[in-house]
Write a structure and sequence with these properties.
Blueprint lengths: L18 H91 L1 H19 L3 H14 L4 H13 L3 H15 L4 H17 L3 H14 L3 H12 L7 H14 L3 H7 L1 H5 L1 H41 L3 H16 L6 H46 L2 H56 L4 H49 L1
Helix pairs in contact: 2-3, 2-4, 3-4, 4-5, 5-6, 6-7, 7-8, 8-9, 9-12, 12-14, 12-15, 12-16, 13-14, 13-16, 14-15, 14-16, 15-16
């Protein structure tokens, strides 16, 4: 059992095996072995293919899932971005709401205290005005209880102390008012410094008075405080201070000319009359020069308007009619001399004369009258040569320029409107003539239509001529208005 069949042996049926039988069985065995091996190889290949296919399928699925995931990630990123933007907006809104809430809380907690302090201060001021010193002191004290650094309350207490003949206490409160108001309320600081200057002068210390007055002006540079410092400087015994008095007084009065009236009666300045008179004389001269320059500009406008008015008044109605008739003849030929055409040309000429009288006649005369009235006022102030009269003109000159410029521009705009209307009429007549001329050449027209045609044919060139006549008048008004406008900066600089 198990041995290979050989020649001379018997097979399972009991037949003797020959050499051919053994060879046949050997070949068959080799085929079976090769077939078995081939099947194993095919099976291995199929297995490998199946594994590779399975692997590729899995990879494809994974890649698809990855693509889906990537798309999902992109969507999530966009969603996250929008969410972040909405979140930032929400945070900004919340921050604004919190800021507003903090503001409300601050107003709710701080404002009542401040308002209460100011209310006490107002009561103290009212009581002081009525001479109720004790009550005023009590209310000012309540104000300081609410707000210890309330400079106005200290100033009021200083005034109460002055009224109660307690100068030392008054000085202390004024100094506290100055200290607390510094950098916060220059007006209050200057007011308390001016009060100390006055007290120093009453106490006989002119040098201290001048120093406090000068500090008040530096804290709140106004003409009134500069004037006060000039007055206090004039109280000192140093005669060398005349130059300072003159310079300060000049600067104060040039800004507020009304102070010159006070200066003429101020006892301390009367004692320094040379410095006072020199300062006021310099002010008068400067203001007169400024007004003279501004007046020269008005004179130029008046001269131009007068020449313009004379030129247009020199043109007679007959000259205007001749001008319009010539324009019709130039447009349509010798037939323009026919009576019907002449009548239509004269009608347009009459309308132009009315516009000429309105724009270059009465309109110009009205503007000239207004400017001349302003010039008369200005000239009178120059003749009087007082600071008060010069200041009145000085202050009103910008309004004079505004009025003149406005009148000139209104006239130019009125001419533009009128010429625009005339131009539209001319354009309509030209179109009508063009349309009817084609019909006449082909079919002819009725007598009424021919009358209309002739009227339009004469009116169109006449209206164009009227517009051309008014164009330089309009340009003149615009140019003159531009001159006034361009001169304004120089005049303004001269007046200031």
């Amino acid at each position: 059992m198990g041995s290979e069949p050989t020649i001379g042996s018997f097979d399972r049926s009991g037949q003797l095996r020959t050499r051919d039988d053994v060879l046949r069985d050997a070949v068959q065995g080799m085929r079976d072995e090769q077939l078995r091996t081939g099947r194993q190889i095919v099976a291995s290949i199929d297995s490998a293919n199946a594994a590779l296919s399975s692997s590729l399928t899995e990879q494809t699925r994974m890649l698809g899932a990855l693509g889906d995931n990537l798309r999902g990630v992109g969507d999530e990123i966009l969603h996250l971005r929008y969410s972040l933007e909405r979140g930032m907006d929400a945070l900004h809104r919340q921050a604004h709401l919190q800021t507003a809430l903090l503001s409300v809380i601050a107003q709710a907690t701080l404002a009542p205290s401040r308002t209460k302090a100011q209310e006490f201060e107002r009561r103290a001021f009212s009581l002081l005005q009525r001479g109720l010193l004790a009550e005023a002191r009590a209310e000012a004290g309540r104000s300081l209880e609410e707000e210890p650094y309330q400079w106005g309350a200290h100033h009021l207490l200083a005034q109460v102390s002055e009224a109660e003949s307690a100068p030392d206490e008054a000085v202390e409160h004024y100094k506290l008012a100055i200290r607390y108001a510094a950098g916060v309320s220059p007006q209050q600081q200057a007011l308390s410094l001016a009060a100390l200057a006055r007290m120093s002068l009453l106490a006989g210390s002119a040098t201290d008075a001048e120093q406090f007055a000068w500090e008040a002006y530096q804290a709140n540079p106004t003409a009134e405080l500069l004037y006060a410092s000039a007055v206090y400087l004039a109280t000192t015994d140093d005669t060398a201070s005349d130059a300072g008095v003159q310079e300060r007084l000049y600067r104060a009065v040039i800004e507020r000319p009304g102070l010159s009236v006070v200066a003429m009666a101020e006892p301390h300045l009367i004692a320094r009359s040379d410095a006072r008179d020199a300062a006021l004389s310099d002010v008068r001269d400067l203001m007169a020069n400024r007004v003279s320059y501004a007046l020269s500009c008005l004179d130029q406008v008046l001269s131009s308007l007068d020449g313009f008015l004379r030129h247009h008044r020199s043109q007679s109605p007959a000259e205007i009619r001749t001008y319009i008739r010539a324009s019709v003849v130039a447009a349509i030929g010798d037939q323009g001399t026919a009576p019907l055409y002449v009548n239509h040309a004269d009608r347009i000429a009459s309308e132009l004369l009315e516009l000429r009288d309105r724009f270059a006649g009465q309109g110009a005369a009205d503007i000239i009258e207004g400017i001349r009235a302003d010039r008369t006022t200005t000239s009178r102030a120059l003749d009087e040569r007082t600071i008060e009269s010069l200041q009145t003109v000085h202050a009103s000159f910008p309004q004079m320029l505004d009025r003149a410029e406005s009148d000139l521009k209104k006239m130019a705009q009125a001419i533009e409107k009128a010429t625009g209307t005339i131009t539209n009429h001319a354009l309509g007549n030209e179109r009508f003539v063009e349309a009817k001329r084609a019909i006449i050449n082909k079919f002819g027209i009725s007598a009424d239509e021919r009358q209309r045609f002739m009227r339009a044919a004469a009116s169109a060139p006449a209206e164009r001529a009227a517009v051309a006549y008014l164009a330089p008048i309009r340009k003149y008004y615009w140019d003159t208005a531009k001159y006034v406008e361009a001169a304004r900066p120089d005049i303004t600089r001269a007046l200031h």
